[in-house]
Request: fold
Amino acid sequence: MATLKEISEATGFSITTVSRVLSEDETFSVAESTRSAIFEAAEKVNYKSPSQRVEKNRQTQKSFKVGIVEMEYDLDHFKDSYYIYMRNSVEKSLFDMKLEPIAFRFHEETGEYINISGNVDGIIAIGQFSGAQVAAMEKWTKNIVFIDSSPATEKYTSVVPDYETGIRQGVEYLYNKGHRSIAFTGVKYTLDSRAGKIIESRRRIFDDVVKEYADLRACHIDTPSGSSGTSESIKKYFASTKKSDRVSAFFAFNEPTAIGVLRAIEAAGFTVPKDYSVLSYNDTALATMTQPQLSGIHIPLPQIAQAAVFFLNRCMLKESTMPLKIMVPTTVTERESVN
Reply:
């Protein structure tokens, strides 16, 4: 295929002039004879502009198969509704791009990922994964995009929520509502990008952010995963803490935890938000199914999924090889659970 340099040499015009004419730059003015000469030369040598090459790729590309890999869950880390909605968003984005989703599962005994559909062209991995699990994915393909973790930023693109912004937004929101005592409510430990055990990132960020408020009293209420376990932890908190010493707001690290807080407050004879406020994190459709509806930190799941699918598709088309880490900002969604 011809290059701009060859057309420049054939016509006598500069490469810049040839490039701007062939890209049909409307801000670039040249004589009609110049334009005609350049297009005539390009046609003779079968030159294709970048946009024409991309369009041709799209028209001729095969129907890519994309594996969806989800993090493994044990009894202590049941499947968060956030990841259910995230997977649904990924599948929708794949269908929108006319890509075929293929479900993978991890085989504990062999340490391999398996599926029933054969080879895949790329993988979207949702959650946190160990080094061994990443290596197991690489046996299928090197076209991998991670969502919610960045286990190998030098090799793979990842799309992750900006947790620090979200926690800052949440603390500021509660503070501006008049709350001067807040409990971060959730698990103490979680998995890092390599599936190692670490302090939960939102809890750690919360500890740093509250130090910036001189008149803010903060504490933790450690809970197991899930709403039922959270309810028991909140009940114990109420039983062991005088009402005058209790916090006025609970900042839950996800929606199942926030639902557990709501249940415990109701069971203790109090109401939300009259007696206590509850702010959630993630803000999926589940937040609108509670009574009262949960205010929360919104993570734009469809946009995260779309970005992951977009960059994976570029990798599969060989249009881009540079790995990127995309931090997706959060917003506050105000509903009924904060007063």
Q: What stands out?
A: Residues 74-78 have pLDDT under 50 and may be disordered.
